[in-house]
Every structure is written in C-alpha cells, then in structure tokens.
Amino acid sequence: MSLVGVGGGAGTDAGDLDALVGSGAERFEATLAGGGVAAGAEMALRIETARRDTSNRYRAWAALTEAYLFESGGHRRRVAGARVERTAELALRSGFDLGSLALASEVSAGPVNPISEAVTEAVRQGDKAGLREAFMRGDQLLRRIHDFRCDLLSDQLGAIYREEGPEGLEAAMLFAAARGSWKTSMPADLALEPNRRLRELAFFLTVCAHFRIKFTDEGERWQIDVLECGRCGRQCRDRYTDPDWGLEVVRVPGPLTFGRPPMTIYQTHMAVIHHQFAIDEFGTPWPVFDCRGFRDDAGGCRMLVYKDPWAAPEEVFAAVGRQKPVRRATAGPGG
Amino acid sequence: MTQAERSFTEAELAELVVSGQERLERALDGGDVAAAHEVATGLIAAMRAFCTVYLDWLVLTDDYVLDELGHEAHVRVTRPERIAEMAVRTGMSLADLVAGQALVAGPDNDIERNLGAAIAAGERDRALEQWLEAERILRDVHDLRRDAISDLLGQIYAEYGADGLKAAQMYAAERGWWKESMPHDFELDPAVRLEEVAFMLTVGAFSDLYVTEHDDRWIVHQNVCGNCGRQVRDRYRDGEWGLRTLAEPGPMTFGKPELTIYQTHLAVIHHMYAIDLVGAPWPSFNCIGLENEGHCELVVYKDPAQTSPEFYDMVGMAKPGS
To answer: Is any Cβ of chain A less than 8 angstroms from the Cβ of B238?
Structure first.
C-alpha cells in the first residue's frame, strides 16, 4: 500500500479518531452537505482517483507475478499458468455484467471516463442528485474492480502455491515486493510524522480498501479493530464460503501464516510483504497485522500502528521467522 | 489436367472438408463403438489443439511486451476486465467458462465422459447432444482466445505503431508453433499436407470450405472462414467490440487499404516469416481484408518452390531466384 498523499491535508494532530473512519460514501456525503456540489464533486473525484490507483497497484502486482513466472520458468511456465477463461469466470462470479465490464476498462484507464464526466456535468448543472448518482455508480464499480483484481491475484498466487508450495508462494511475493510500489512507499510511510501516518492509513483503509474500522489510542500505538476487512475478510466471507470459487488456502503452519493456519493465499501476503519484506528492507513490519486467518466472517482482526515504527515487539518479528534488528542510535527508516 | 493426374477426385476433395458434426454423425451411424469413440476423441482433440495454439500465441505476445517493452508497458496491457468483457460479448455464461476450462485442459472432463458413455450405450441423440455442447464451448474458447490475441496486438499497435505490431508477431513466430510446424508441413507429401490443412481448418477452426484442384496447387475457398472471417462478420460490424484495424497500406496489409489486426498475421507470419524460414509463404493467402465474410482463398502449392512470385510481392519480398 502507498499511503503518502492519499489522506491529504493532514496536520500533525490525529484529531478525533472517529472522524478518520468514515467510508468513501460517508466522506462524500459529509463534504456535499458541508460544501455543496463543487466540494462534493472534488471529494468524489479524489476518491475515484485514490481507488483507481489502488486497483491499478493490484494490476501492477499481477503483472509482476507474471514477470516472476517468466523469470523463473520462462514461456512454458507462463502458458501453464495462463487463465483467460478463469479470468472471465472470476469477473462473472464478482457480479460484473457487460456494461460494468466495459465501464470498468474506461474507469481503470484514467480520469477521463463516463463517471468523472457525469460528475463534471453535475457540477456544471448544480445537480446534487446527479452528482450523488454518479458518485454511487463509481463507488459500486470501483469496489467491484478492487475485489475482482484481489481475487485474480489470489488465484494467480494460489496456482503458484499449488505447483511450488510455500517456498514458491513466498518467492513470488518477495519478487513482486522488491520491484513493486512497496519498495518506495513503505519507507515513505515510515518516515511520516505518526499522526499523519495514521490519517493516511485511515483514508487508505476506509476509502481505497473498503474497510470498516475503529481506532483506539493506546499510548505508544494505535489499535485498529477491523469491523469489516475490505480485503481478506470480505473475500473469506463472500468467496471462500462458496467452494465454486476455488480459491486456495495455506494449511501448513509457518512464517507465511504467522504460525496460524489456515490462511487464505491473500492473507499470506501480510506475513510475507508487510512483515518479512518490510523487516528485511526497512527494519520493521508495516503495518503490524494481527491476522485471524481463514474464517467465515469479515471482521475480527487487528492492525497496530506504532507511533515509533521501530517499537514493535519481538513476538511480531518471531511470528514470521525474523529477529528484531538491534536498533541503531538514530531512528528512521531502516534504523 | 486430366482426372488421372489429380491427387483427389471431386468426391475426395469434398470429403476433406466435412464438418466435425458430420464426421461424428457418420461414425455414430456406422455402429462401431470403438471407431465412433476414436472419431469423437480426435475431433475434440483437434479443437482443443487450436485453442492451445492460440493460448500459446497470446502468452508469447504478452512475453514480448514483458521481455522487450518492460514492466510499465506490461502493466498497461494487463486488462482483466477487457478479457472478461470479450468473453461476455462472445456469449459465454459462467457455466460455459467453467466447462470451457475443463474441456480445454484435457480429455478428463464431464462432457467427454458423458459423450463416451453415450457412444458406448449406443445412444446416438445423447452422444450428438454432448458433442454439440463440446463444439459450442470450444468454439467460444477458440473465439475468445483469438479475440484476446487481436486485442493485445491492437493495444501494441496503438502504442507502438505498425513496427511494434510486426515485432510482436515476429517475436511470437520465432518462438511459437509456426517455427516447428512450418518446416514439418513442407516435408509432408503434398496430398497429406492438404488433408491436414483442411482438417485443421474445418474441425479446429470451424471453417466452411471447399477445395479445387489445379495442376500445381489446390485452392481452399473459404465460404465461412473460421478465424478472420467470422471475427469480421461477428465483431467488426458492431462498433462496441472495439477491435482495431491496420489502415496503413503496405506489406502488412498485403497492400490493401485496411486489414483487421488479426488478418495482418497472415502477411507477417504466414508470408514474411514463412518466406524467411522455409522459403515460401505457408499457406499463401489471398486475403480480402475487411470485406472478408468468408470468400477469401488460401493456396496450397503441391511444390512450395513453385509458389507464384505474387505471393512474395504482396508483402514486399522477392521470390529467391526470380
């Protein structure tokens, strides 16, 4: 995840924690009520942009996973893993129809698309209802794109896991992490002033990743209770409870599962990328996940944001087979 | 040419282009269970093989982007919603997509098991019903993969122009099926070569053909071309599909004003690449471009060395020694 800039306008004070957890729709409605159509439209477009960027990072991750297959096994390996019909199957299971698929390609491609044009037109007309309709259309579509790409990635990584086991799954994720957005976003996030880091994370989770969360300030850290996880949790509840989806589960305990099997393929990325990779590259996990693993509801896990990112306890490192680095005198990324 | 000099009688030529369904119906009516099972298995294998070649080509084209154009370009051409959109436009349902994956993966699937059971039980109608289901789904898979190749090549063309389009096709040709199959085909007895092409087109590519024999060649007339022709008829008449054309007359369009992206592979792979690899186009195409609704021709020379120079000229190449 890349947090820098997504929260926008954040000061040094985290402020009212409850104010940080509004969903995209709640933020839009609050802005529309307080600032009128022009302000509402600005928020709508900001949300659309953030969500598009998030979904396109999933796409980049999928492309990096294809690059992993190409580098590790060449063309033959990629053909064996190619999934034209499976891709379409997952889209239809996600609830896409022809119209929403065509619109999804346009919205994913950039800011000039029918939804943003409808937003602009609503501003021109001063049309509050039209703006709300355009926002809601985008809200539903971008969530569907997000979920579809999350599923595709999970399916792609699941195929690698079936073929290569935990080592292959870990290698594919570390390959992507070393070349993807995490490489630059994590140190940037860790360098942020703590309150801003929290605000950016809150915007990312609630708006871009469709979480419902609750914050508690515990002094040295903030605890984020996940009421509805927008990623693994909804995937567990909405996909894994139906075996027709055919998504893979890791049942062998180990560093990929924080020692807590079973875990969905997608959940293992938290151990591998947000913990192992972040520890190896930057000295600490980011964020710290307390993942409940595979389950049939969408909530119940936690995230922890340490105000000093290097204050995460030893057990967090040990859960993914790492040791906490000895802290250098000067704190900072990698310190 | 007298009848005695011909390789095939008119009736034998007609037999070469019998559709998959008719082949199976004849086998079922023959009453030999083992033979009917062999025919059914062979027909489905041929359809599956064409789909497999298409998948290989699609991935080779994606390899080209990854390998030659880099990660950022590869991300741009990764468009999962577009793939799904084309599947829906093709008419594939969720059940079709699930069944298609099993059918195209190999013979261990419900439809082929049901087909085999019906043949064994002598249940003609049920066997035919299962066959038609397999054919329908594999034709959709064939079409979806063809369209996915066309769309990806179209994206490459949109971003990198005709040179990029040609480079992507040459990259695939040098690493794909053609590299092995073209020299192999030229080593075959000419009549066998024609038989294989006819079978592949009628069964594997769902074409409706007839063949005429001449002194030095056979002409395969496509009433309904199963690849480009059906794509033009069923996709290019509807602006919603958004598949691209190459409207730059030159060697990649056989000098014609405009070809579909898919049709350009006839010029690039079956002519240019084949000339470089085996010395002659294979097969030689008389492509009629966007007006193609099933009336193009492809020419199978009995001796490829006798291929007319015009088939070289149309892609800007000279026949060696001419």
So the answer is: no
B284: left (phi over 0), alpha (psi -120 to 50) or beta: beta
Minimal C-alpha gap between B299 and chain A (Å): 32
Number of domains within chain B:
1
Could you tell me the CA-to-CA distances from A136 to A48, A115, A126, A132 in Å, in that order?
11, 10, 17, 6
Q: Which residues fall within 8 angstroms of residue B42, CB to CB, at 6 or more apart? A: none
First-to-last CA distance in chain A? 21
Q: Is B102 on the interface with A (CB under 8 A)?
A: no
CB contact under 8 A, A98 and B89: yes
Structural domain that includes position B229: 6-313
Rounded to an integer, what distance in angstroms lies between the CA atom of residue A78 and that of residue A80?
5
CA distance B174 to chain A (A): 13
B78–A63: do the CB atoms touch at under 8 Å? yes
At B2 the pLDDT is 61
Q: Which among A65, A78, A85, A105 is the top mutation candidate for probing chain B, defined by the most B β-carbons within 10 Å of its own β-carbon?
A: A85
Phi, psi of A45 (to 5 degrees): -70, -35
pLDDT band, residue A265 (cuts 50/70/90): very high
How far is it, in rounded angstroms, from Cα B151 to Cα B144?
10
Q: Which whole-number Å values give the CA distances from A273 to A1, A198, A287, in the listed order?
A: 10, 20, 10
Q: Is the pLDDT confidence value at B205 over 60? A: yes
Max intra-chain CA distance, chain B: 62
Structural domain contains residue B256: yes
Structure tokens at B44: 């489905």
Alpha-carbon distance B2 to B316, whole Å?
A: 36
Q: Do B84 and A88 touch (CB under 8 A)?
A: yes
The answer to whether residues B109 and B103 touch, using CB atoms and an 8 Å cutoff, is yes
Q: What is the DSSP letter of A214?
A: E
Q: What is the pLDDT of residue A1?
A: 47
Q: How far is B74 from chain A (nearest CA, A)?
A: 7
**A179 vs B71: CB contact, 8 Å cut-off?**
yes
Residues A170 and A265: beta-carbon distance below 8 Å: no
Residues of A with CB under 8 A from a CB of B: 56, 59-60, 62-64, 66-67, 70, 75, 78-79, 82, 84-93, 96-98, 101-102, 104-105, 108, 145, 148-149, 152, 179
Which residue from A184, A181, A160, A178 is spatially nearest to A70, judged by alpha carbons?
A160
Contact B269, B178 (CB under 8 A): yes
The reply to whether B318 falls in a domain is no
Could you tell me which residue, A2 or A64, shows the higher pLDDT?
A64
**Mutation site for A-interface testing, chosen from B81, B137, B143 by largest number of A Cβ within 10 Å:** B81
CA-to-CA separations, B15 to A117, B46, B49, B226, in angstroms, rounded: 58, 17, 21, 18
User: Residue A329 — pLDDT band, cuts 50, 70, 90?
Assistant: very low
Residue B159 forms contact with A (CB below 8 Å): no
Contacts of A84 (CB under 8 A, 6+ apart): B55, B58, B83, B87, B144, B145, B148
pLDDT digits (tens, 9 = 90+) for B224-260: 888 999 999 999 988 899 999 999 999 999 999 999 9
Tell me the pLDDT tens digit for each residue of B129-188. Answer: 999 999 999 999 999 999 999 999 999 999 999 999 999 999 999 999 999 999 999 999
CA of B210 vs chain A CAs: smallest distance (Å): 32
Per the prediction, chain B carries an average pLDDT of 95
